[in-house]
Specification:
It contains seven helices and five strands, in the order ααααβββββααα. Strands 1, 2, 3, 4 and 5 form a five-stranded mixed β-sheet that branches. It is an alpha+beta fold. Helix content is about 40%, strand content about 20%. Helix 5 packs across helix 6. The protein has two domains: about 90 residues, no CATH class; about 110 residues, no CATH class. The termini are far apart. The structure holds zinc ion (ZN).
């Protein structure tokens, strides 16, 4: 036999051996199914069930046989990369694994993640007087914090720091603040977006106030005490569906 034929033979044997081992690992992994990953990560060998133990021992035996055959020189060592087939298989893992919200169980509001600040300015030199409609000059400016919908990518709430101007109408001889009613109701600490969403969760989905409060935090990262949500819903019921008369969506009456 020439050296070339010997190498061809060795390669052919190696390919067959590799295929056999790949098939064996694949079938083992299939038997272990999705729990394969859980074993590797979490389950100590002492806690395996009977059937799982059989599969586990089988696997250990296969690996031991493979290693000893390499040791004794019966199998050319270059089939070793075949082993990489196995770790791939249990990694097949569909979505749907339950992962609790990282803030679950926090009882003190102060322990929640700190808010990110968003800046908004409505600080004009002049604006029209709400009584007489004449232009009124700014005499000072101030700031107001509005809790907005949070940032889901960072898991942190968002506070809108609104700078607004205060004006004096020389005709009416009255002070007034620039109109912010499109952002939030007068005196409110929350934006319309938050209030609308909270009321929708309660009215449309019939979620009680406490779970609605948790829902707003968990899924929208805005903390609203449940009593505040209750106030909004009850105020809306008295004043009618749209107290502030804005309409964003075109659905419904
Ligand atoms: Zn005026």
């Amino acid at each position: 036999m020439s050296a070339c034929t010997v190498w061809e033979l060795i390669l052919a044997v190696a390919a067959i051996v590799a295929t056999v081992f790949a098939y064996r690992y694949k079938s083992l992994a299939n038997r272990m199914k999705t729990r394969a990953r859980i074993y590797i990560k979490y389950v100590p060998s002492g806690e395996l069930t009977g059937e799982e133990r059989v599969i586990f021992e089988d696997l250990k035996e296969t690996v031991a046989r493979l290693l000893s055959s390499i040791w004794t020189g019966q199998v050319p060592p270059f089939i070793l990369p075949v082993l990489t087939f196995f770790p791939e298989e249990p990694a097949m893992f569909g979505p749907g694994e339950y992962v609790p919200d990282p803030t679950e169980g926090i009882v003190d509001v102060k322990d929640l993640p700190a808010p990110q600040l968003g800046f908004y300015s409505r600080n004009h030199q002049q604006t029209s007087c709400p009584r007489c409609g004449q232009l009124a000059s700014r005499h000072t400016s101030d700031q107001r914090t509005l809790h907005d919908l949070g940032d889901l990518s960072t898991g942190r709430p968002v506070d809108l720091l609104v700078t607004y101007s205060s004006h004096y109408c020389s005709t009416c001889r009255k002070h007034f603040n620039i109109d912010l009613s499109d952002l939030a109701p007068p005196g409110s600490h929350y934006t319309h977006r938050v209030i609308d969403l909270a009321v929708r969760v309660v009215v449309e989905d019939s979620v009680p106030y406490r779970p609605a409060s948790w829902h707003l935090w968990r899924d929208h990262r805005v903390f609203v005490p449940f009593g505040t949500i209750q106030n909004w819903v009850e105020a809306g019921g008295k004043k009618g569906a749209r107290a502030h008369g804005r309409r964003v969506s075109g659905v419904g009456a």
